[in-house]
Design goal:
Blueprint (H helix, E strand, L loop, with lengths): L2 H30 L10 H4 L22 E10 L2 E10 L6 H11 L10 E7 L2 E6 L9 H15 L7 E6 L2 E2 L12 E2 L9
Parallel strand pairs: 4-5
Antiparallel strand pairs: 1-2, 3-4, 5-6, 5-7
Helix pairs in contact: 3-4
Length: about 200
């Protein structure tokens, strides 16, 4: 075998080994690198408060629970009749499901000021108190007020512990949004089924 043939065969062998190595790295990066590290060696496992026991190792990802998604409504109004389309969306981490669903609903109503939003919802004895920014108190006509109130009630209907709702703005009770008397808690509407 000549010297040139030996050099050529060594180059071919080096290229083949390089190709196999490159293919292996590509396969690894595509399939294995995206897998989460086991908790025993992940960063989360090493970050614990002093005296805190390490979390139990999970062999399967946690199952999605009802608190990870929420139903949001889209209103449709004609002749003072309000209907809703519904969709289930993923709840952003750390969000209160009631606040998220109500704020999503309010953003869809053109008569509601952009800076009007729900600050929080507290529930006591089946009565939800929805606390808005003061911008919600904009004085609505009958049709707009009905869309707002019916939608809030229908949105809260997905939470079975809520039987009625009261309204406040910046912590002060709202007695009306225009025409309806909101002095007493308003019953939740559960008979209006949103269309999927």
């Amino acid at each position: 075998m000549s010297k040139a043939t030996k050099v050529t065969s060594k180059l071919i062998m080096a290229l083949l080994l390089s190709g196999v190595g490159l293919a292996s790295m590509t396969a690894y990066s595509r399939y294995a690198a995206n897998e989460p590290l086991p908790k025993a060696i992940s960063k989360e496992a090493t970050e614990q408060a002093p005296g805190e026991k390490p979390p139990a190792e999970q062999t399967q990802p946690p199952k999605e629970t009802a608190s990870t998604s929420v139903t949001v409504l889209t209103p449709h109004s004609k002749d003072l009749q309000v209907t809703f389309d519904s969709a289930t969306v993923k709840l952003p981490e750390g969000e209160n499901p009631m606040v998220f669903a109500l704020n999503h609903y309010l953003r869809l109503i053109s008569s509601v000021p952009a800076d009007a939003k729900v600050l929080g919802v507290s529930v006591d004895g089946g009565v939800a108190t929805v606390n808005f920014t003061s911008a919600i108190d904009a004085g609505y006509g009958s049709a707009d007020e009905k869309v707002i109130l019916d939608g809030i009630s229908a949105t809260l209907a997905q939470f079975p512990d809520i039987k009625s709702v009261k309204f406040s703005a910046e912590g002060k009770p709202l007695t009306t949004l225009g025409h309806a008397d909101l002095t007493d808690p308003t019953p939740i509407i559960r008979n209006k089924k949103p269309t999927p």
